Amino acid sequence: MMNEQRTWVANAIAKIQADFQRSADTHLIKVNLPQLAGIDIYLKDESTHPTGSLKHRLARSLFLYALCNGKIQQGTTIIESSSGSTAISEAYFARLLGLKFIAVMAKSTSQEKIEQIKMYGGECFLVDSTEMIYAESEKLAKELNGYYMDQFTHAERATDWRGNNNIADSIFQQMQLEPHPIPKHIVMSAGTGGTSATIGRYLRYHQLDTSLTVVDPENSVFLDYFKSADSSLTSCLGSKIEGIGRPRVEPSFIASVVDEMIRVPDAASVAVTLWLEKVLGRKVGASTGTNMYGVLKLAQEMQSKGQTGSIVTLLCDKGDRYLDSYFNPEWVENNIGDVSPYLAHLDNFLQNGSSLDF
Question: Looking at residue 131, which CATH number applies to its domain?
């Protein structure tokens, strides 16, 4: 017979599973770009999750992982280091289970994200810089006798990468009736590295002829680590593209399952983000702009070689969270710089089908 805590854990898992059962899968959007004839581009729209981002999948997996490992009990306070989206999703699941949640994040995090965390009943503990979030999270967890969720360590192991409706499995299920059902490339940016690890492992497990390309913003050490294998690398600056890029090599970033990496200038990420609103008719977050930059680079390479096929990437979250930053021209000018050369190039491509050599 289960004791009281085991009963609570069983009920908590049942609540999360019921929440999952109520949720539909996310859409796979085909992007209309006739300028790239023979190359089909798809966006997996993760913004349609209940908490509005890709991180909803991660948060659900992290809670189940912690519950099944006996780390979360009735009354446990959950602490997480997060730039926003993961914290929003974890606050949602903490509220579902009746648990207190505290997000440790940099003061530079968008106000929209902070308000969403609070809307789900979470608290925000703001620190001066991204580099401080790890130690402060550990400290808070110790002081409050809580549990530090630690997405950066556990993301790659909390999800079943072999299948079981993970994001890679969902992509290939949805691609089955497309002209090129096995993508030439899947493009992904890395925050924790958990999603790229899931996709890369899935591709190998199912022996799929698809290349995984990870795109990395400025001030992130992932690409340098990919080239050097030096796990001690750090950066004194944080990424300006919220949710992706890290100043240290996170344990969940598995470079050995990545086939290629591309450095993306911040100005290019933001320009593609703004340009995508014209293509899709709605705003997306800047990490999606980073992803799409990589897609366009790869599509151009394929086109120059006379290749056809498909490329899939992720629409990570909605642009409504960034109205005061990436969609604010004054903020962009002060924090990112001049994005107009990239925008002019993209607009020329859209209107005239000119080369995308940027």
Answer: 3.40.50.1100
